[in-house]
């Protein structure tokens, strides 16, 4: 079953074309990586899928419902989102347990009745992420890696069908990054949950992300099986920079092709 499908989506703002002819279909249970340079349109794309923005043209179907014929807030409730923008908006003096519970209502703060069942569910999520000891701690006292785990638990509180992780490893050291990635895999591998994982770092692409999409200047450059997408040629094209991609133990590592880079730098054929 298709969780969402985008058909020839265009989005313009202030006379500028930000998304161009984007078509993408994602099926139940798929785990995707979304990769592209700063400003390539990744967030704009995710905002349309999650019902936060309306495209200028094109058809969007999410959870089998067509945009425009279905309340967008119904869609938003079924999407879990982890991003640094969300981290900034949260009320940082609240306890971690309350932050997780607020995920049920998709609210910043809690304005509705919280049941014992809600608390138990939030506690179970904290435990599954090895964060139970932090339940009563104020969110603002946590480290960046701990905060991201709380946001992941919060996103899962409403049993989403679609989980968007927008650069969740930003600011994390290698052990925290690896343990967050492992937690994402453990929590979603066997489930029907669709995960869209946005990153700028190829080494974060765990083998369980079987599909990948590359954005370039608001267009999809390539999408499909990750191993066919994460090649030196495709990444060089979307980064506008000659890079070499190698695969070691199932992970992708990207380095600059130095000789090529210094040549293009001198001739001005790079936009870096
Ligand atoms: N509401 C808006 N009004 C005008 N321009 C916008 C708006 N939202 C995004 N843009 C522009 O659209 C382009 C794509 O932005 P977007 O945030 O989708 O990029 P991104 O790929 O998510 O980048 P990053 O990796 O830096 O987060 C950018 O040039 C941005 O300035």
What would you note in describing this structure?
By secondary structure, this protein is of the alpha/beta class. The protein has a domain at 90-159. It contains ten helices and twelve strands. The strands form three sheets. Strands 6-7-8-3-9-10 form a six-stranded mixed sheet, with helices on both faces. A four-stranded antiparallel sheet has the order 2-1-4-5, covered by helices on one side. It has a two-stranded antiparallel ribbon with strand order 11-12. The chain is globular, with a radius of gyration of 19 Å. It binds adenosine-5'-triphosphate (ATP). Adenosine-5'-triphosphate (ATP) binds next to α1.
List the helices and strands and how they pair.
Elements: E1 2-13, E2 16-27, E3 31-36, H1 42-49, E4 57-62, E5 65-66, H2 72-77, E6 79-83, H3 84-89, H4 96-102, H5 116-128, H6 144-156, E7 162-166, H7 174-188, E8 194-199, E9 211-216, E10 219-225, H8 226-229, H9 232-239, E11 243-248, E12 251-256, H10 258-267
Helix pairs in contact: 4-5, 4-6, 6-7
The chain binds adenosine-5'-triphosphate (ATP).
Protein name: Iron complex transport system ATP-binding protein
Family: Belongs to the ABC transporter superfamily.
GO molecular function, one term: ATP hydrolysis activity
């Amino acid at each position: 079953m298709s969780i969402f499908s985008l058909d020839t989506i265009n989005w313009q703002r202030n006379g500028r074309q930000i998304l161009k002819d984007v078509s993408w279909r994602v099926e139940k249970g798929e785990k995707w990586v979304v990769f592209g340079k700063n400003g390539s349109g990744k967030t704009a794309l995710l905002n349309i899928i999650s019902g936060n923005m309306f495209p200028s043209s094109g058809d969007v179907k999410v959870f089998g419902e067509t945009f425009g014929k279905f309340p967008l807030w119904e869609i938003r409730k079924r999407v879990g989102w982890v991003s640094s923008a969300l981290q900034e908006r949260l009320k940082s003096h609240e306890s971690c347990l309350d932050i997780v519970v607020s995920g049920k209502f998709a609210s910043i703060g809690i304005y509705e009745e919280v049941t014992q069942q809600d608390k138990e569910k939030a506690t179970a999520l904290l435990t599954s992420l090895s964060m139970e000891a932090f339940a009563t701690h104020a969110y603002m006292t946590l480290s960046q890696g701990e905060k991201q785990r709380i946001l992941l638990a919060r996103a899962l509180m409403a049993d989403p069908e679609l989980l968007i992780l927008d650069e969740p490893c930003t600011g994390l050291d290698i052990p925290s990054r690896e343990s967050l990635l492992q937690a994402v895999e453990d929590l979603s591998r066997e489930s029907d949950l669709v995960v869209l994982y946005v990153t700028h770092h190829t080494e974060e692409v765990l083998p369980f992300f079987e599909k990948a999409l590359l954005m370039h200047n608001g267009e999809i450059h390539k999408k499909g099986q990750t191993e066919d997408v994460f090649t030196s040629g495709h990444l060089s094209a979307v980064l506008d920079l000659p890079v070499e991609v190698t695969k070691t133990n199932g992970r992708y590592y990207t380095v600059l092709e130095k000789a090529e880079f210094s040549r293009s730098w001198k001739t001005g054929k790079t936009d870096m």
